[in-house]
Amino acid sequence: MKAIALLSGGLDSTLAARLILDQGIELEALNFMTVFCTCTNRGATCLASQKAVEILGIPLRVFNVSEEYLNVVRNPKHGYGSNMNPCIDCRIFMLKKAKAYMEESGGSFIITGEVLGQRPMSQRRDAMRLIEKEAGLEGLILRPLSAQFLPVTLPEREGWVDREKLLNIQGRSRKPQMKLAEQFNIHDYPCPAGGCLLTDPGFARRIRDLMEHQYDFSLNDVHLLKFGRHFRLSPTAKLVVGRNEEENQKIETFSQAGDVLLKTVRYPGPVSLLRGEADETERERAASITARYSKAKGMEKMEVHYQKVEREEEKSIFVSPLSEAEIQRGRIFE
Predict the structure, then answer these.
(1) What is the pTM assigned to this prediction?
(2) Contact criterion met (CB below 8 Å) for 141 and 154
(3) How many CB atoms lie within 10 A of CB 288?
(4) What is the pLDDT of residues 26-79, one digit of tens each?
(5) Which backbone phi and psi does 211 adopt, to 5 degrees?
(6) What is the dihedral of CA 130, 134, 138, 144, to 10 degrees?
(7) CATH fold of 2-183, please?
(8) Which helix (H) or strand (E) holds 237?
(9) Domain boundaries, the chain
(10) Strands 109-111 and 2-6
(11) What are the pLDDT digits (tens) for 282-312?
């Protein structure tokens, strides 16, 4: 008998997998990565899930679903959580993907590390029922940590899994899981804060601004949201200003045709990226903001170079660095 485990690499999903392994069920782990994950190594793989399968001794398949997932973020049928996290739609999306893989790989059911009542949006009883129904997985999702509080699933009813060996954990306390981890000799697991940028208030403000002004945003646009200072110059123009050398390099890396890169002349300063349709006034303001964050922000006038990406021509503009009061107008706060 084979099951598919949705494995984030966090403590709950690791414990759920261990409980089912101990019942003699063959397990294969799935991890779905998106551009909003915070637990990746340069976007290549989820470090937490990789570590978890090494502990568990099971195979792992990782799928990057970033492109498809943008549509979930743009228009979630069941709305957002406290920030821009479409938790219910996210679970439905991931479980549909897991179902397709289960059927393809010969699995019979799916297990998750969900705990009843732990997350206010997606781990309520009614939400769990809704998610199962819309994912086409009614009776096929086993949640070992809370199973004794939930309806009997097909693998329990058929005797593939012994319900008496499943648990009755609920609520937000982590103490039962931590105690169980000690029993299983599982240590050094990730903190429970979650690995999704969409739950972060600062990032949520940035992506909300992006959606309001550019509904058809791309993965490149999302990557830019992850670093720098962000300024909305107009409905069609936005500026991203690097905060250190690492961010300056990333801004240049994610620049694309049509963007304008700005750099201060003769004095150390940030790399700034101006994206969208900007008129002369907005280009001057972008240069003044760039000057404000340079090492010579107290000068009366500064020279700033600007250049359109993929064009050789470079121009200079002399501007006055903006004051602290002026700089806050248009800032998309973190």
Answers:
(1) 0.91
(2) no
(3) 19
(4) 999 999 999 998 865 444 456 788 999 999 999 999 999 999 999 999 999 999
(5) -65, -35
(6) -60
(7) Rossmann fold (3.40.50)
(8) strand 237-241
(9) 2-183, 227-332
(10) parallel
(11) 999 999 999 999 998 889 999 999 999 988 7
